[in-house]
């Protein structure tokens, strides 16, 4: 069978069967389209201001690596005059984060970008290895998610940055939408589906430190598989090992369902994202103070969604995925690269096993699922059930943690509450609860 010709340039041989729309295109056209779509998302959403100082949340994984490469390329090409810096969080996971940070250091040298690394040990007096040794693997992602969000904000404060971009992709957003639907928690859809999740006007706290940094997701409409394809054809250097503590996360069940839907209908991922956006617009105001997660409170400031902190964690920035599907894809890309140049276009599929009768069955790796542990206060804080049986949100007022100064709807923020429980189990080490003034 003769090889297909690229549907865009009509000259080169088609190398890629694009996951998003099944278009047969060559590698050169794919990279151009990928960058053009990212630029369109940034421009249409007005993510940046000329000359703005922006921190790229860099984990060394495929998503943040592609994000750094694309932003560096587009910034130079379109002369956006952005002041880009890399911001990495060292959770203290031996054999995982220490290795991925080496990739980040290589990126900093390659792109000639400043790099700031902030560690849990430095901020909280605990590494994730120590936390897991204390609390076990069930629920450890709650600690990591809360600590990570605050660490990014405090790292931004150290850099004098009010805007952090993360590598969350369309798959990540679809998973978050699905988790909220599974919980029947529609009020949180607005924040989950917003490409910008906070506002610059709330960037500085009472003492001048950053407590609510503007966050955005430039790759929100990019498929995870296309991110891997872009990294492969651009020959980007990234770390792809899964976090050793992540398989217990509840997100894994949603991720498996999204991947299964994608196999049946690739457009499902963006359809779920768009459905989440549309449903968020239909969610009525819970009360006069809280108008949905994307609405402004108290003169432009917003309430930090603590449960989102626990769920968000490191996203897929570290290369984690359902059953190692992206790792399978990466291996197949390497094999295709070494194959005969006369091969047909690349279409990534999960492996299949053959039965004796000649039929095939798709291999699916089971995902472990656990329900995050929540205290009674947490269960009643975000939602309460009214007398008529409908769910309503309780009124929350924005303030700052009385211990560390971080933005919080409670007198003591979630990080300090978690640290209290950890610190009770060992003598004080001299590190202040909440990480000081960060």
TrEMBL record:
InterPro entries tied to this protein: CTU1-like_ATP-bd, CTU1_C, Ncs6/Tuc1/Ctu1, Rossmann-like_a/b/a_fold, TilS/TtcA_N
Compartment annotation: Cytoplasm
Keyword Cytoplasm: yes
One GO term (biological process): protein urmylation
Keyword list, A-Z: Cytoplasm, RNA-binding, Transferase, tRNA processing, tRNA-binding
Record pathway: tRNA modification; 5-methoxycarbonylmethyl-2-thiouridine-tRNA biosynthesis
GO function terms (MF aspect): nucleotidyltransferase activity; tRNA binding
GO CC annotation: cytosolic tRNA wobble base thiouridylase complex; mitochondrion
Name by which UniProt lists this protein: Cytoplasmic tRNA 2-thiolation protein 1
Protein's organism: Meristemomyces frigidus
Gene this chain is encoded by: NCS6
């Amino acid at each position: 069978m003769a090889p297909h010709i690229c549907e865009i340039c009509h000259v080169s041989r088609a190398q890629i069967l694009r996951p998003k729309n099944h278009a047969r295109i060559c590698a050169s056209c794919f990279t151009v389209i990928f960058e053009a779509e990212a630029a369109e998302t940034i421009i249409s959403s007005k993510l940046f201001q000329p000359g703005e100082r922006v921190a790229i949340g860099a984990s060394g994984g495929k998503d943040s690596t592609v994000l750094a490469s694309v932003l560096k390329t587009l910034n130079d090409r379109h002369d956006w005059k952005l002041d880009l810096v890399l911001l990495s969080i060292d959770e203290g996971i031996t054999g995982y984060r220490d290795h991925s940070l080496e990739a980040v250091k290589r990126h900093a040298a390659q792109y000639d970008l400043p790099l700031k690394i902030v560690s849990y040990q430095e901020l909280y007096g605990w590494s994730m290895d120590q936390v897991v040794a204390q609390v076990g693997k069930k629920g450890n992602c709650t600690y990591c998610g809360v600590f990570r969000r605050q660490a990014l904000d405090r790292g931004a404060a150290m850099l004098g940055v009010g805007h952090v971009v993360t590598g969350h992709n369309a798959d990540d957003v679809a998973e978050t939408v699905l988790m909220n639907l599974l919980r029947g928690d529609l009020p949180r859809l607005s924040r989950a589906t917003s490409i910008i999740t906070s506002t610059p006007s709330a960037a500085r706290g009472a003492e001048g430190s950053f407590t609510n940094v503007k966050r955005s997701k430039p790759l929100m409409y990019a498929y995870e598989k296309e991110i891997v394809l872009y990294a492969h054809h651009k020959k980007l250097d990234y770390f792809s090992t899964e976090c050793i503590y992540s398989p217990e996360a509840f997100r894994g069940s949603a991720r498996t369902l999204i991947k299964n839907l994608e196999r049946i209908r690739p457009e499902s991922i963006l359809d779920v994202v768009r459905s989440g956006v549309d449903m968020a617009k239909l969610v009525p105001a819970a009360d006069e103070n809280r108008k949905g997660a994307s609405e402004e409170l108290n003169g432009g400031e917003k309430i930090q969604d603590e449960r989102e902190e626990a769920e968000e964690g490191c996203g897929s920035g570290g290369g984690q995925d359902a059953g190692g599907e992206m790792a399978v894809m990466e291996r197949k890309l390497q094999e295709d690269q070494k194959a005969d140049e006369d091969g047909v276009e690349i279409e990534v599929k999960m492996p299949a096993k053959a039965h004796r009768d000649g039929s095939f069955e798709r291999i699916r790796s089971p995902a472990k699922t656990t329900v995050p542990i929540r205290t009674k206060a947490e269960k009643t804080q975000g939602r309460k059930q009214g007398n008529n049986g409908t769910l309503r949100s309780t009124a929350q007022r924005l303030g700052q943690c009385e211990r560390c100064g971080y933005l919080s709807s409670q007198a003591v923020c979630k990080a300090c509450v978690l640290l209290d429980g950890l610190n009770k189990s060992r003598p004080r080490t001299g590190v202040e609860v909440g990480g000081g003034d960060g």
